[in-house]
Design brief:
This protein is α/β, with parallel strands linked by helices. It contains eleven helices and eight strands. The longest helix is centred in the last third of the chain and has 19 residues. The radius of gyration is 19 Å and the shape is globular. The mean pLDDT is 96. It binds erythose-4-phosphate (E4P).
Length: 215
């Protein structure tokens, strides 16, 4: 499973990129709204830093508007992936983008049937939202597993992005359930480093080193 970061904040992207783990970036209108720089300028900065997929979401709700916005976004850099909501209009746009060779990420996936339809429309990625399903008492991880099984049975190449990740356990479980990618907030990526035995081990090694120097 690959790591994407779920943010539009360039400092967070730069830091995670420096760890050598980052394969891509996802943004959404709520994340972009937290930033002051114009959207396209920020996308340009991100695509210069991260060479793999950078998802940029359309705002229009009709297919025509999505297609127009998506084509503009795709002009920013070859690694832009146009993020489209899971609606009939969204899938119309995905089908057009697929013919034009523009990569797409169908977002707001909450059922296996939605994922299957998005894949058949030509989506490059589908994004099931784990955390938001957990919030309403449904099992987000079970959804990842079901989508992964269906895609494997039918030889579907659309990649599954585990989205709406809330904690480190979501990452391990998504990898086990067959997600190709987890798009993760910076805070959760930082948490992945942490283990008390790692910290204790470093302290112990340094203390022993200091003792040796004193000899
Ligand atoms: C995915 O691409 C979305 O940007 C994101 O994961 C949504 O997560 P949230 O439920 O924390 O807003």
């Amino acid at each position: 499973m690959k790591f994407f970061i779920d943010t539009a904040n360039i400092d967070e992207i730069r830091e995670a990129h420096s760890w050598g783990i980052l394969s891509g970036v996802t943004t959404n209108p709520s994340l972009v709204a937290k930033e002051t720089i114009p959207f396209h300028d920020r996308l340009r900065e991100i695509t210069e830093l991260v060479s793999d997929s950078v998802s940029a979401e359309v705002i229009a709700l009709d297919a025509e508007g999505m297609i127009e916005e998506g084509r503009e976004l795709a002009k920013i850099a070859p690694n832009i992936t146009v993020k489209v909501p899971m609606t009939p209009e969204g899938l119309k746009a995905v089908a057009v983008f697929a013919k034009e060779g523009i990569k797409t990420n169908v977002t707001l996936i909450f059922s296996a049937n939605q994922a299957l339809m998005a894949a058949r429309a030509g989506a490059s990625y589908v994004s099931p939202f784990l955390g938001r399903l957990d919030d309403i008492g449904q099992d987000g991880l079970e959804l990842i597993e079901t989508i992964a099984d269906i895609f494997a049975i039918h030889g579907i190449e659309t990649e599954i992005i585990a989205a709406s990740i809330r904690h480190p356990q979501h990452i391990t479980a998504s990898a086990l359930k067959g997600a190709h990618i987890a798009t993760t907030p910076f805070k959760v990526l930082e948490q992945l480093f942490k283990h008390p035995l790692t910290d204790k081990g470093i302290e112990g090694f340094l203390a022993d080193w200091e003792k040796r120097k004193a000899k």
